[in-house]
Amino acid sequence: xxxxxxxxxxxxxxxxxxxxxxxxxxxxxxxxxxxxxxxxxxxxxxxxxxxxxxxxxxxxxxxxxxxxxxxxxxxxxxxxxxxxxxxxxxxxxxxxxxxxxxxxxxxxxxxxxxxxxxxxxxxxxxxxxxxxxxxxxxxxxxxxxxxxxxxxxxxxxxxxxxxxxxxxxxxxxxxxxxxxxxxxxxxxxxxxxxxxxxxxxxxxxxxxxxxxxxxxxxxxxxxxxxxxxxxxxxxxxxxxxxxxxxxxxxxxxxxxxxxxxxxxxxxxxxxxxxxxxxxxxxxxxxxxxxxxxxxxxxxxxxxxxxxxxxxxxxxxxxxxxxxxxxxxxxxxxxxxxxxxxxxxxxxxxxxxxxxxxxxxxxxxxxxxxxxxxxxxxxxxxxxxxxxxxxxxxxxxxxxxxxxxxxxxxxxxxxxxxxxxxxxxxxxxxxxxxxxxxxxxxxxxxxxxxxxxxxxxxxxxxxxxxxxxxxxxxxxxxxxxxxxxxxxxxxxxxxxxxxxxxxxxxxxxxxxxxxxxxxx
Length: 519
Prior knowledge:
Elements: H1 3-30, H2 36-43, H3 47-50, H4 52-75, H5 77-96, H6 101-129, H7 132-151, H8 153-164, H9 168-171, H10 173-187, H11 202-224, H12 233-255, H13 269-299, H14 304-310, H15 312-331, H16 334-355, H17 362-388, H18 396-433, H19 441-463, H20 474-510
Helix pairs in contact: 1-6, 1-7, 1-10, 4-5, 4-6, 4-11, 4-18, 5-6, 5-10, 6-7, 6-18, 7-15, 7-17, 8-14, 11-12, 11-18, 13-17, 13-18, 13-19, 13-20, 15-17, 16-17, 16-20, 18-19, 18-20, 19-20
Transmembrane segments: 12-36, 48-68, 80-98, 110-130, 137-156, 168-188, 200-220, 235-252, 272-292, 312-330, 337-353, 365-383, 404-421, 485-511
GO cellular component, one term: plasma membrane
Domain Major facilitator superfamily (MFS) profile: 14-515
């Protein structure tokens, strides 16, 4: 084998290892969802408390991405990837052994530091290793892995937690992480250290981390308390702090000779288009996975594993289309492909909303699942390559980091906005239709209050529970609750459709085709 062939084969082996790291990091954002009910029993606590197993990872993951991206650009991306993998693997093992919920929450926050590094540094390394059309193919494969990891969490998490218990979803990271680290160590050449002679912009790193933390935490507070107004101090304080620290961050970065972030990136229309698409992808398609999983488990009654199986019509497209996205991106207009894919997603949400009736069956979900799966499978690979097009070598890490941050912020924003739309539509329907003739107004108001507090998904379980079975007007109650539930699901579907349609317009206007466009 010639040196050139060996170098070529090493690149593709490196891509496998880096893709595995990305798969693990993103999978751990969603894999825990289906294991939460098991954790509630294991730790003898409430569902609300256990949700911090997800929130602690989400917050920490979003906070560290930009900081680690900059450090990788400055001191070597291979070093940062391997260090991130060590943190991820050790924290995963500790999470599986967690004796209580507090230990698990802390472990998840530490694990997310490793996961954030794996995610953003892997993208930067792929962009450094591959050039030209090969980069398009490699980024297409990486994007397909990202899409697959995000939507396959219910299937993998359900299978592991049902077969071996919830610790298995963490233990599986240990052998996979060691394997990926060894491959990266053997096949990846270290990138130049672009930070020689520069001071670390510690103030910029702290300000960016605090701003992102405040924004994500404020959105989580709104998610946990949907009936609180945005002006409530519990929410407004955090979002206000995020805005303040963002303004200070921008002011500081503009004054520094070697800032953490080159704000001139945002003068590049292509880059702005990429982060808008990333935000739309997170806030519509990925955030929707939360509600789709809840629909299948809490309303349709599928187990965690069966929920994952029934989402295969959506997840399978990343495997089918992943290998060809690089070819499509190099032979056709990238911006047209991305905007067109977002339009396909819009059709998927319209089909999803149309399926939300009292006669809902799994067959009704096949079309929207397929359309959303195709859209996700095309957008992710193309977005990564488009976003990094023309990026300077020393800024590849930061560029990929910003795309990842906007994707993650999009998920946090989307879960809140889609959830609020669902809750508002649900409440509105209950208020307009909840009338039990022959019963006193106070009694009716009390019963309605029970279902308002329960929320869209839990209300179905309450209405069809044994405690309500002998209620004289249970049929009327169940009919209204079902109508309210489907009104809420239709509402969030149309909101998601609006997000991707805006993303389609923005991507068509701002994205360019080819790597030669000027910044």
